[in-house]
Each structure stands twice: as C-alpha cells, then as structure tokens.
Description:
This protein is mostly beta strands. It contains one helix and 21 strands. The protein has a five-stranded antiparallel β-sheet, with no helix packed on it. Strands 9-19-12-15-14 form a five-stranded antiparallel β-sheet, with no helix packed on it. The two termini are 26 Å apart. Residues 2-16 and 235-251 have low confidence and may be disordered.
Amino acid sequence: MIKRLLPVALLLFALPTSAAITFVNQAEVRVLAGTGTQACTLPASMLEDDLLLVALANDFDLTVTPDGIASGQSYINVDKPSAANPGLEIAYKFMGATPDTVLTIEKHGTSRTACVTNAWRGVCLINPFDVVGFTSASSGNGDPDSPSITTLTDTAVVLSVGMQDDDGTVVLNAGPSGYSNAINGDTDDSVGANVSVAWVEKTTKGAEDPGTWDLDTADAWRAYSIALCPADKTGAGECCEVIAGRTRRMF
Length: 251
C-alpha cells in the first residue's frame, strides 16, 4: 500500500519548474492635448490572463490634473511620481475573459502624451513581478539608461523602460544591447516627450544591467528596470503552477 501511494505523494509535493513568459504584441499611440479622453487601441491577439504593461510620458507632471490612465479601468500603477522630468506613468492589468481592445487616457490640457503598451502571456497572476517594485535611475541629460536589477527566478523577463523629456520627435537608433522588440513612442512635437520599451529573458536568475538606449536626442530622462515573474515560479519564496490556464499558489 505504501509503495502504491509513494508516487502520488511525490507528485503532490513536486515543485513546478519555471516556464517561459511569451511576448504577445505591442502598440504605440500618441494622445493629443486638450480636454476629455482619448481611446487608444491596444495590442492585438491578447487572451484572458495576459498582462498588459502601459508606459506613458508627457512634458508635464501627470499627477497634477491628474492626467494619464483614466480611472475605472482596473489598472494598477507601478510608478507615477510627482514632479517627474518628464511626467510619466507605468501601470499594468491582467486581462479578463474578454480582453480589452482600448485604453482610455485622460488628455493633458496643453501637452501630448506618448504611450507604449506591451502584452505578455504566462506571467504569474499572484506575483507578476519577480523583484518587488523596480529599479530606476534619472539624469538631467543624455539617453535613458535602465539600472541593474537582480532577478530571483530563472526565465524571468526584464523590461527596460525609458522616458525622455522635451524630445517629442525622436529617432530610435537602437535599444539596449541584446534586448528584443525595442519600440519608441513620441509626441511628435519639439517640446514633448518620448517613451521606449524593450525586453530580454534572463535565462538564469541573477544581476541584469540593460544598458543605455541609443536615441538621436539627449535630454532629461528617467529609466526603469522591471522584472516579470513566470507563472511557474520556484525561486522567491512561493510557487505558482498553471492549472487550466490560470495560476494558483502552491504551499
């Protein structure tokens, strides 16, 4: 009887291995200045439980009016600092059974807003971030340079997110070395702002330093390193496993 139960017991207590996060799609939208809101088209092909990351940049502080992501859409802010240079907002949301197709943004009265969105599949629903919060850096001049971040789980995805002030017409020469799907959104005006996002899979957990973006302009900037945690998590104190497309905590 004990021999028969042993394989079952081992199965119940076995820890899942980390599974890769999948990049789904991305989009760039320019939000006009004025009053009211603008509906921005989101990346195609999203499914239930996909994570959408939103990054905004504006020449002005987005916390004053406030502007940025309109309330009532269930987004959770990663960061939206006051007196930022440039003004910015980073937020995320897990898609429901019917994934969103638009994002509603509150317009700034006098300044356009740059918006980049990225969709991801296979991110842990319990703790989407492998590292609590983020790491960030800023400077009064130059190109965005996301700082080092130390991942805790194999196959975590590290995102480099950079915002640059006063350069609303920018050419993206290259993202950080080795990073994929580099995208830049700008406000298409001389005194606006721009936002850039790229990513890399950190196969083995540990320190990851994204390095500097290569833009054709130089001005005040703020940059972030954010680590997404795989749905099957084994490295940071709790584990998740995928069951019928969703995740649950393992004890």
